[in-house]
Amino acid sequence: MLLNCIRLFVCVLCVSYYTQFCGCQLINFRDYDTATRAPLPFPACGAESIECLRRGIRTFFFLMDSEYLGMNAIDPIILNSLTVALPDEQLSFLLRRVNVTGARWTKLAERKFNLPGGKNGVKFVSDLHVTGELTMMMSTRIDPFFAQITMDIQDVESNITYTWAGQRGFDNEDYILIGPERVAVRNARTPSFFLQTNNDEDARTMEQVLQTRSSILDHLSNEITISVMHSIVDNFRLFASKVPVKNYYKYAESN
């Protein structure tokens, strides 16, 4: 009887051991059988294929807004504050809680290669819609003026130049490293705007100042556009460091 009990105990141990062993083997197998990353939803483009690049850029903007690979959404994008000071006129503006929409529909106008300093570049054209809290301060008045501003920035051109280099990763794939960028903005037209405030007299005063000094609107719109473009480049820098270049760009490999 005792011998039968010992045999039963040994059998139970053996079954338990082999069950755990097989389970571990199946888990390891599933780890090795992990699916690879799905291909990008746009084809690889040649350097001179501007139409292909435009289609790719359009999809890339949607990938940004879906926070693909940890990128930051750019539509809408929230900016903390912007300032414009006119010391000679003892006048200053502060724009806070800036909400910018429309960046997703930015268009690729031109692609540039072999610029001075070995840089590459792109030209984007954007239509941006901006809302925020505008404060105007004048030396002739102690209390500042307050208003909610809505501004449309239309056909603004952004010329972005950047350094870049190729690098072979540990996975034997080629990646693009994006260096520091420079953003230059040109407004095709003065931004349109309207103000909302509970004080009609304050609104008229602020509106008159903005209309007679269009450089203030130009400066605000330029700073807003530059901030949006820096965010876009930061996203592409992250994207290019994680996605092999062969997935989105046609190039000749050199050994």
Question: How would you portray this structure in words?
Answer:
The protein has 255 residues and is of the alpha+beta class. The chain has two domains: 1-34; 42-247, Bactericidal permeability-increasing protein, domain 1. The chain is built from four helices and seven strands, in the order ααβββββββαα. Strands 1, 2, 3, 4, 5, 6 and 7 form a seven-stranded antiparallel β-sheet that branches. The chain is elongated. It starts with a helix and ends in a 13-residue tail after the last helix. The relative contact order is 0.14.
Ordered list of secondary-structure elements with their pairings:
Blueprint: H1 2-32, H2 50-65, E1 77-86, E2 91-101, E3 107-115, E4 119-138, E5 145-168, E6 174-187, E7 192-196, H3 200-212, H4 214-242
